[in-house]
Amino acid sequence: MKQQPNENLKRSLGFTSALSIVIGTIIGSGIFFKQASVLDSAGSSALAILAWILGGITTLTSGLTIAEIGAQMPYTGGLYIYIENIYGRMAGFLAGWMQIIIYGPAIIASVSGFMSILMANFFGLSSNWRIPLAIGSVILIALMNLFENKISATFSVVTTLGKLIPIAAIIIFGLFWGNQNALSQTVTEVSQSTSNFGVAILATLFAYDGWILIANLGGEMKNPQKLLPKAIILGISTVLVIYTLITIGILRFLPANLIHHLGENAPAYMTAKAFGPLGGKIIAAGIIISMLGTLNGKVLTFPRIVFAMAKRKDIPFSKSLSYLSPKGKAPIAATVFVSALAFIMMLFFDPNRLSDLCVFSIYCFYILAFFGIFILRKQNNKRPFSTPLYPLVPIIAIAGGIFVAVCEIINDFHGVILFLGFIALGLPIFYLVKKYYNSKV
Hints:
75% helix, single chain, mainly alpha, Amino acid/polyamine transporter I, L-amino acid transmembrane transporter activity, transmembrane, AA/rel_permease1
């Protein structure tokens, strides 16, 4: 196993913080704003619920597979480090490049974009305010992350606890006071020829995504070999149960055709209907806090990939991007860089399309990592954590990843080509940077 260079980040994150970051980073905009798109693609309420369950199972098998790999490589950088150690420097670079140029900014832009929709409704503002609200939210969270990681980790714990209030309210009210049949509704205005169960599962995976971001903080955990697998597995399992119950609760309360009509405004409508104007405002505020917690998890973790790559002189402007604040050891320049790219994406893409494309981008490299577990098993018999039901679990993870990639290619071919083009752009960057730094030696 290749050793990584010494890191200067503080190892201050314990299990509670790690688990909160996993759950808090996953639960955010997706479960609320993807209900309509999942339902439309599935075509019926029963298939929509099944899509959420299968999306959770796919994510759990992915997490179990990565947990074994991550326990053997507890370094800052996550997927970037895993791919490099298994497949070599160029493959690792492309995995990191994809995350800092496409995946990270896209997912930050998407989450903040969804959140701005609810914020505009909450404050009674027009849709013209969505982008300014999204940009302002990212700036606020980015400023907080310029201090010591304990501050953002504490914020993750607080917002994770806070988001349980609207989640519990929606589940309880929907299950016990809803009068719709959650298992037998169909979306009559969506023809069977346009419904696509594969796309429905793909939409749920955006809501489940974010679990691997805790791996980017491997260099800041107190005991990552033990904490990383526990946080990933328990976090994903908890979210799977919560998402299934929320979906059933919403489908018990709102007719399927109404959810189809409301689209992204379904969460605001349901909270107002269920809890009245004041209660609806309180629950909506809780959902916004939930999204802020998710956004915090993204802004906390993605700059760590930039830092890890810059520390090893893998990207242009490495000296600046590897800068850490003297006291808090926060990657200031990396945080600004990722946030700036997110602002650009907000201006050119809508949140729904961004969410699907960023899931496609990350799953292309997930598949490589999943195959890597078989390579590592041949190389190393000593493991801090072993994936249960091996090799069945990794095989399911690989099949799920291929399924995601194929569905998105069929669903948005032009978007896929655009994002693959950005990834391919990393190849000349890799050689130019390598040539530049070699000439400086």
